[in-house]
Task: structure prediction
Amino acid sequence: MNKEIVVVIGAGGIGLAIARRQGFGKTVVLADYNEAALNAAAETMRANAYEVVTQVVDVSSRDSVRALAQACAARGKVMQLINAAGVSPNMASVAKILEVDLYGTALVFEEFGKVIAEGGAGLIVSSAAGHMMGALTAEEDHALSFTPTDELLSLPFLQEDVIRNSTKAYMMSKRANHLRVVAEAIPWGRRGARVNAISPGFIATPMGQIELQSKDGDRYRAKIAASPAGRMATPDEIAIAAAFLLGPDAAFVTGSDLLIDGGGVSTMRAGIVPTPG
Result:
């Protein structure tokens, strides 16, 4: 029971990059909804001498997330949790985005907050999209932060007649991630653990390629070109930032979100490119 466990939910580009950076010499529990992709990712890591176990998980199901959390705790000390699961605006409907990216994130925080070890750290891979929308009311901020998880999707301002397209659903979900981290820092802190978020911009991953090849691809490419960095980031660049927030150098950092977008949000706030939605 002394084995350190690193849990990575989401076996895509960013999740795998973080798993590689954080998991060597530990037991990596890799989880994903897509079993074929999960097994392929695990085999790649095992071929490079990582100890990896897998479990299929549906982050929108409390029973599934609880089963994963309990299985991880049974293996050893859950020292790091990384939630990189999610769907993008061109992959899913409004309802599915809210279910996976908003409700699912809250579920993961809640269930793993029951098993995270003292000295542990959690991280949600959110998105720069959460910084792109306008300010919410104080009441909406509070509701997204502190509404009981199983009541979140019933909030009036999360209904489909209010959130009319998948882009708005995605931005709202990612804003909720930032707010939920602030709230979860309190119960996690009672266990001697920390929890934070990172908000990547355009990243060179398979999901990023889906977005670039979508109907919005030209708009995305224009935003990348207009950003101060003028390029996408690699998954390894995101993993470097994640390593800081998960590690001892960030011992005083909890309830925070780190924007990693090459200045893309800056160009929107300056009016150089339009805000989506």
In short: The beta strands are 4-9, 27-32, 51-56, 77-83, 116-125, 194-200, 257-260. The chain has a mean pLDDT of 95.
